[in-house]
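Protocol step 4 of 6: structure prediction from sequence.
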Amino acid sequence: MLGVESAGGVDKIVENIGSLPTDLFAETCQQILSQLQGQSQAIDVAEICERFQKAGVRLDLGATQEITKLLSFSFRSAAKSSLSAEQLISRLCESSSRWGKPALQVLHKLWSEQGSLVCSHQEVQSMITVGQLVDLQWKLGISISSDSCRSLNSPYVTLLLKTADTSGQVSCKSFEMTISQFQNFFKQFKEMAAVLETI
């Protein structure tokens, strides 16, 4: 179902969901639904994990990430198939017998209220396969020497890009450019900004 190797993997995730207080589970679901509706750019798994731990729930970052993946996948699948709240609950119960009644009630309520909004936004997102730029940072440096050259004295720019893919997962990419490459990159960004302003 999820890329989890066995039903036992899904059962373990569902058991972890069962260890969450109902209000904290509802907040987590709401954050995922907000992202799936385009109201937020990404799901901050580290922040969710920190909230779990402050509430006394002993789940590490990996377990928290598995919970968010399962919920996000379930909501996206339900949107893709235009499932009602009852159909979503039925599918979840088919995937694991370990779902607790409080968690299913939260999922039913939230999907009843917001499922149609997620469906319409996911329909638009299915046409767009490019992620979103969340953050861009840069710094200027100078290479003093290298293995092959003792006196290099060459300036460079390091860029760090944070992007969120269509499922909301954030990834970081960093790379270095010469000054002329950075100037060309900057020029292209300015051209893109000018085009976007006309839309």
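Step 5 (inspection) to follow. The beta strands are 132-143, 154-164, 170-178.
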